[in-house]
Structure formats: structure tokens, C-alpha cells
Amino acid sequence: MFGFTFRPRPRKAKSAQTAKDRLQILLAHERSAGSGPDCLPELQRDILEVIRRHMKIDKDAVEIKMDRGDEWSSLEINIEFPSTEKA
Amino acid sequence: MTSQLKQDTPAKGKIIVITSGKGGVGKTTSAAAISAGLAMLGHKTVVIDFDVGLRNLDMIMGCERRVVFDFINVIQGDARLKQALIKDKRLENLSILPTSQTRDKDALTKEGVEKVLNELREEFDYIICDSPAGIERGAHLAMYFADEAVVVTNPEVSSVRDSDRVLGLLSSKTARAERPGAEPIKAQVLLTRYDANRIAKGEMMTVEDVLEILAVPLLGIVPESTAVLRASNEGVPVTMDEPSPASAAYMDAVARLTGEEVEMRVESDKRPGLLQRLFGMTA
């Protein structure tokens, strides 16, 4: 059986490894402390509050995006405010 | 609440629950495959995970790294629906609403679910509700507002029995059942993990056997296929992955859901031929 491993079957061998990699990354994040259920909603509330001290923005104007990675994760926060902003 | 339901609703998004009673029969796989299939046909589709506390749809859809807010955050007013919806990176018509990993099923409220579904109906053609196993709160609310139901069933005694139970609930404990004069939920069976070889040997109930017992129409027959595990390993809905007997079966089922008439056919993973078996390869 192993005599025929020269046959190119890359996908088959890879999908189990992909599954393991995905699980390891995800579970590492889920097991780590400090990411409780209210972490992101609270973060959003705090960000809004701080920015509102300085400029007028809508409460719907914050967009939070997350990308959990192997070595690092990114948190992207977009805040829209009117261009004719007069505080 | 019922008064809201009585309002005449113009042609808006259709709510389809993917349910089964029994666990492990392929609800989430089917919800992912069907929603991706609908989006591939050009329908704006959203798939919602109702399994509060045991989030898994995100992994099957391959968007687990991008979850920020969830269904419960929206219901509790901590996030807007738009923020919690994850747009699929491969299909622009497809969005995912993940469930909470940390709360319990009591966080779902009928009013909250109804509000979110009504909002989604405005924007999407199809709203696919991926029900948890069992018949408790999460499963009840996943089916409560549905227009149609896909009952995922394996040709196996406990699965068929649980499907029968769920069919009973669909026709008695849902909004359409409680509202006088409403059309009942259109329920169809999706037979999964179908193994033609074992049926030929008399080891597995046939499609006819299952349908005779459940007495509801058949949406499709999905054969046992290596493609299903591979797709879940990679976080790709089966219908978006490379062609396989399972993806063909799901696409036929999707076409039937949209009202097309498609002949029932079952392909199966090719059995290795004599030469292949001699050389120790698997199909």
C-alpha cells in the first residue's frame, strides 16, 4: 500500500491536517481567559463612550472585525463619523 | 405576538428549519450545504445556528476565526444584527449568524428570535435555521417561526423514530400550527448517510421503508460519502467543495426547495474496481 504513495493525492492527505490545525487555533482562543461572553460588547461600549467625549458619532457607527490567527489575531475597528463634524 | 403574525406579509424571505430530533444525523452539514447551494443559485441566504452553548456551524462554514458578535448578543441588544452577520468570503449572497458559545439555551427568547427573523426576512430570500438536536428550547425556537422544514433522517431506527416525533411537533407546536387558518409548515424528509450497498444486502431500510413510516414527501437522498468529512475538515460546505455524489445530491435537494422538479437519483462513491483494489487505492 505504501509503495504507491508516489501517486499525487495531496487533498486527501491534507484535509485531516487542516482539521487539526483549525481546531488547535480555535481551541487555543476558546480556552484562554479574558475573552468572556461580554468582552467584545463591553469593549464596543467603552470605545463608543471614549470617542463620544470628543466627537459626535452615531451609536451604530462602530464596526468591529476579528480575525483569530495562529500567531496573532487582529481586531479591526472602523468608526464612521459625518465629514461635516462640528463638535 | 400572534397579532403581529396575523399581519399580511408580502413575499418576503422564507424561513426553513433544518431539524431532526436525533443528534449526529447531519443537520449542520445539511444546513451548511443547503444554504451555500441556495446562495450559489443566486438567492440571498443567511444560515443561523440555534445550538446555543455548542457553536459549530461556524466551523462547518469555515468562518470560526471571524466571529465577533453572535445571535444572543443581537437578541439582548448588545450588538446590531448587521454587526453579528458574517459575510461569507467565497459567496457574496451568503451570510452566517453564529450562536453563542458561552451562554445557555435560556438566553433565547421567542420574542427575540421573532424580531431577528423578521429583520432577516426583509433582507434575505432564504433564512436557514440550523436546529440543535433534541426537542428543547433551542430546537423548539428554531422550528417555531418556520415556513418549511427539512427533517434530516438516517435510515436507522432511532433516527426515524425521532424524526416522527419532530414531525409531530412541527404540526402542533409552531406558529403556523397555532395560527388559525394558516398553511401548515411544509415538511420534507432529507435522507442522509444512505448506503446503497447495505440496502442491497438488506442491512439498511430502503427509502420506501422510511417514507412509508414517516408519510411525508422526500426532499432528497444524500449518499454516505467521503466528501462530507473532507468538507467539514476544511470548513467548506459540501456543495461548495469539489463535485461529489453528496454535493450533487444536495444541489438536487436545493433545486427542489426552490420549487424546481428534479428527478430523484442517487449516486454513490465509486467502489474501487478490481485493478484499483489490487493496487491498494481507495476511490
How far apart lie the N and C ends of chain B? 54 Å
Strand content of chain B: 15-25%
* Strand order within the widest beta sheet of chain B: 3-4-2-5-1-6-7-8
Largest sheet features of chain A: 2 strands, antiparallel
Order of helices and strands of chain B: HEHEHHHEEHEHEHHEHHEHHH
The CATH architecture of chain A can be given as 2-Layer Sandwich
Structurally, the number of domains of chain A stands at: 1
- Architecture of chain B in CATH? 3-Layer(aba) Sandwich
- The overall pLDDT of chain B, averaged over residues, is 91
Estimate the helix proportion of chain A, in percent: 40-55%
Greatest interface and its participating residue counts: A-B, 28 and 27 residues
Number of helical segments with 4 or more residues of chain B: 14
Largest sheet descriptor of chain B:
8 strands, mixed
Content-based structural category of chain B: alpha/beta
> How are the strands of the biggest sheet of chain A laid out side by side?
1-2
Distance between the terminal alpha carbons of chain A, to the nearest Å?
74 Å
Low-pLDDT runs of 5+ residues of chain B are: 1-7
Report strand % of chain A. 5-15%
What is the string of SSEs of chain A from the N terminus onward? HHEE
Can you tell me the CATH class of chain B?
Alpha Beta
